[in-house]
Amino acid sequence: MKIHEYQAKKILKEFGVKTPKGEVAETPEQAKEIAQKIGPKVVVKAQIHAGGRGKGGGVKLAGNPDEAEKTASEIIGMNLITHQTGPEGKRVNRVLVEEALDIERELYIGIVIDRALEAPVVMASSEGGVEIEKVASETPELIFKEYINPATGFLGFQARKLAFKLGLKGDTFKQAVKFFLALYKAFSVSDASLAEINPLLITKQGDVIALDAKMNFDDNALRRHPDILDMRDLDEEEPIEVEASKYDLNYIKLDGNVGCMVNGAGLAMATMDIIMHTGGMPANFLDVGGGVSEEAVKNAFKILVSDKDVKAALVNIFGGIVRCDMVANGIVNAAKELHVKIPMVVRLEGTNVEKGKKILEESELSFKAASSMKEAAELVVPLAKQ
Ligand code: GDP
Ligand code: MN
């Protein structure tokens, strides 16, 4: 799960990470009031789940409270397009109003899980502020890394090593070490999958402050953090995925046009593979789960047909725990009730498969039945292209 910058800063602050003074505003009037409290000079920052806001016009300086109000009125409600939002952009619903700080240097610090090494890695760079992906690909020697043994945590000498490599000295060095250790604590205690500060600001006075903050969390650990789960902003998520999560369906939207409905994550992946192998492109990943009740089948259909990109659907069910006849009934009822018009290919296999096929054949709906995954893919891919 992702959260907004202002929410990440709230969490980080609790762990002792230094952040600028600031508050979130939903109206230009609120932005003005905040600027009166913490200003006069403030920076007004669009809050969306995407980076690159500065370049897209979503981060602006304001010299006084009236200017803050005007700037906020321009940013709130705007459709912000950045390299991370896609061409359609994201609507801005609120802004973070923060005290404007004087920049001496912009550095970078980030923590992610290195999946190959099965450990967190802290990355620091003197090249902050810009796109760190560019630094990583063009000048990787400017990124310093410290791998963390999860049993011991991030150790003091490792934090000092990074601060030294960034060329920090004196009190700034000390502040940076404290900052890095606090950042790791926040990352690990809150079960984050990413904590990124870009830029990590060194002020003209030599203070170390998180000018920007981004945190993502491990969804499987969120039940341990109800306070973080409360920060979820459904406006920032794919609407169709939000809908699917209400029904406990495991659904991810993809770019293709073949809708898939499958029971079991492994079978769902294999189904996507064979669609691509046959020259098609899946429109989604959809695992309806091992049990597949009639209700689940109906909900899954609802989600599938609400996606305008789906031109044909492939239902691939293996009847292990479930019986194929029950699944077939579910499909027929759902298709009737929802007036499903897209062509459909159904492959059933397993318990009571003959009964299931009979139910499909006897229904007045036009399904194409396939007896193998290969056949199913070869039938559905051309249908989606028509
Ligand atoms: P991003 O573009 O979405 O990553 O948003 P950031 O929060 O990183 O802001 C983008 C840029 O705005 C930063 O790299 C800074 O150069 C600038 N900026 C943000 N806050 C301040 C501030 O308080 N003072 C000044 N002078 N510049 C700021
Ligand atoms: Mn940034």
Description:
The protein has 386 residues and is an alpha+beta fold. The chain folds into three domains: 154 residues, D-amino Acid Aminotransferase, Chain A, domain 1; 80 residues, 2-Layer Sandwich (Dna Ligase, domain 1); 148 residues, 3-Layer(aba) Sandwich (Rossmann fold). Helix content is 38%, strand content 25%. It is built from 14 helices and 18 strands. The strands form five sheets. Strands 7, 8, 9, 10, 11 and 12 form a six-stranded antiparallel sheet that branches. Strands 1-6-2-3 form a four-stranded antiparallel sheet. Helix 2 packs antiparallel against helix 4, helix 6 packs across helix 7 and helix 12 runs parallel beside helix 13. The radius of gyration is 26 Å and the shape is elongated. It starts with a helix and ends with a helix. 43% of the residues are buried.
